[in-house]
Amino acid sequence: MAKRQDTKKFFENLSGAGKSIGVLTSGGDAQGMNAAVRAVVRMGIYVGAKVYFVHEGYQGMVDGGDNIEEASWESVSSMLQVGGTVIGSARCKEFRSHEGRLKAAHHLVQRDITNLCVIGGDGSLTGANLFREEWSGLLEELVQQGLIDEKAAQNNSELHIVGMVGSIDNDFCGTDMTIGTDSALHRIIEVVDAIMTTAQSHQRTFVLEVMGRHCGYGMAFHFCFHFLYLALVSALACGADWVLIPEMPPEDGWEEQMCQKLSENRADKKRLNIIIVAEGAIDSHNKPITTDHIKELVVSCLGFDTRVTILGHVQRGGTPSAFDRILASRMGVEAVLALLEASASTPACVVSLCGNQAVRLPLMECVQMTQDVQKAMDEKNFEEAVRLRGSSFNVAVLNVGAPAAGMNAAVRSAVRVGITEGHKMFAVNDGFEGFYKGQIKEIKWGDVGGWTGQGGSILGTKRTLPAKHLDKIAEQIRIHNINALLVIGGFEAFLGVMELSAAREKYNEFCVPMVMVPATVSNNIPGSDLSIGADTALNAITDTCDRIKQSASGTKRRVFIIETMGGYCGYLASVGGLAAGADAVYIYEEPFDIRDLQSNVEHLTEKMKTGIQRGLVLRNENSNENFTTDFIYQLYSEEGKGVFDCRKNVLGHMQQGGAPSPFDRNFGTKIAAKAIQWISRKLKESYKEGRVHDTACLLGMRRRAMVFQPVVQLKDQTDFVHRIPKEQWWLKLRPLMKILAKYKTSYDVSDSGQLEHVTRVRPKKVD
Question: Which of 80, 103, 208, 620 makes a 20 to 30 Å CA pair with 229?
Answer without folding.
Answer: 80
